[in-house]
Design goal:
Elements: E1 3-7, E2 10-13, E3 18-25, E4 32-39, E5 46-51, E6 58-59, E7 68-73, E8 78-83, E9 92-100, E10 115-116, E11 120-125
Parallel strand pairs: 2-11
Antiparallel strand pairs: 1-3, 3-8, 4-5, 4-9, 5-6, 7-8, 9-10, 9-11
């Protein structure tokens, strides 16, 4: 059982940066692949980034490639999402998710992740 709490969302201007954090508890953090998803009103949940249990393997969709960076610190039970060069289309509720997996390469499908945080709002102004 894993409980996840996101933080760090807010209002930023176009081109700005923001770092989201997600802290897990209830189980050994290093046993989980971690991911970030986002969902805007009226749209389906969208994959943003994923990272394997040891942090060595990271995956991104084209929409955020080169702008977002996922990282983790298992000592702090925390996964981060550094977002740079933000655009208005990045505005969404951002969710962190956990999948108990020791696979080297994390999955990108939301259905693979069994634990989810409550979400944190990111709004990018024009």
């Amino acid at each position: 059982q894993m409980q996840l709490v996101e933080s760090g969302g807010g209002l930023v201007q176009t081109g700005g940066s923001l770092r989201l954090s997600c802290t897990g508890s209830g189980d050994t953090f290093g046993n989980y692949a971690m991911a970030w998803f986002r969902q805007a009103p009226g749209k389906e949940r969208e994959f943003v980034a994923a990272i394997g249990w040891n942090g060595a393997n990271q995956r991104y969709p084209d929409a955020v490639m080169g702008r977002f960076t996922i990282s983790r610190d298992n000592t702090k039970n925390t996964v981060y999402l550094q977002m740079d060069s933000l655009k208005p289309e990045d505005s969404a509720v951002y969710y962190c998710a956990a999948e108990r997996s020791l696979a080297w390469v994390p999955t990108t499908a939301p259905t693979s992740y069994e634990y989810w945080g409550q979400g944190t709002q990111v709004t990018v102004s024009s």
